[in-house]
Write a structure and sequence with these properties.
Length: 413
Amino acid sequence: MTEAISDTKAAQSGARKAGATEETVVVVRLGEITLKKRNRPLFVRQLGRNIRHAVRGLGVRDIEWGPNRILIKAGPSLDWPELRDRLRRVFGLQNFSLCQRLPWDVDAIREGVLQQAAERSFESFRITVQRSDKRFPGTSQELERMLGALVKEASGARVDLSHPEETFQVEIMPGGAYLHTERIDGAAGLPVGVSGRVVALLSGGIDSPVAAWRTMSRGCEVAFVHFQSFPYLDASSRDKAIVLVRELTRWQHKSRLHVVSFGEVQHQIVASCPAPLRVVLYRRFMLRIGQAIAERERAEALVTGESLGQVSSQTLSNLATIDNATTLPVLRPLVGLDKEAIIREARELGTYETSIEPDQDCCTLFTPRNPATHSTIAQAEAAESALDVAALVKLALANVETLEFSWPEQAQA
């Protein structure tokens, strides 16, 4: 052990006055929000609200805020497996660790690391020390060498800096030293609620849940609209939408789902408009209805799961024709992804298995054999001149079913 580390009694004595006694703490490391400068306090406050909601009922004693860290202090009844699962779904967290918090003292750190090593079986290891508080004497490298020599002697394991079986990590911060062996990846992104509200058009398919999730990851609070073709088709797509919203609510804690009966609107389009334009006209009406619901939700944009060129309605000209029906921005987080990439994300998100269950989706009702792939706004407006557009939108909005969801406690209205 070097002279710089061994001759530290005076420095440690002063630090112990504000130091921590041994306890269990979850150290949460912030990601992108640390770069936000002027908006950072707003982002951190929202993240704090989201974390407090997520950890409710899990035996957390207190939450302490630092410049780039959040410390979640455990009570005697901490449910770590459940807390770990919930923290993984809080946007804004880069990673987190379950730590043993020790006093600001070399002897305490040495004893803590040796105790952790004695509780594990391993043939190779690495010691990593990070000193965010530079008042602690010595350098990170000196501490690593000292601790590594002790663990090697006690365990007989070899040091491996590239591919160790175990990594013992020490973070020295104001108020204590934090020991852990694992960094668990968080969801990263921005805290839900810092970027405003949007309304996502949610089908029962693979794409739209992924699009909604991606929008949440950029800090948006998402409300959902699902279109079903009742009374012409059964309610199976509605049932799938409910399951999907329940899963997505685990990422934003509260959600609202509006279920719109769209069958009569489709029937009027089929009866009065050219067949090739049906799908484009369906989508135009969905955006009109979505905008009306967005106004109720005080939302600033609509979100869809469309990907450029994936199906006939998703060509550039058709998307331009569809967007013309609303004055709100239409966000398409998946526009540049291919189907395989979207499927991979759906699997990781946990929505894929639900999305591929069979249902009677409204978009399959009265689908023409040869849908238009290059429509124009003029063609769509000419076709809609045979319809009472405002009356059909009003009809759809008159029979909206609204369901409320919350997580961890889920409820429906």
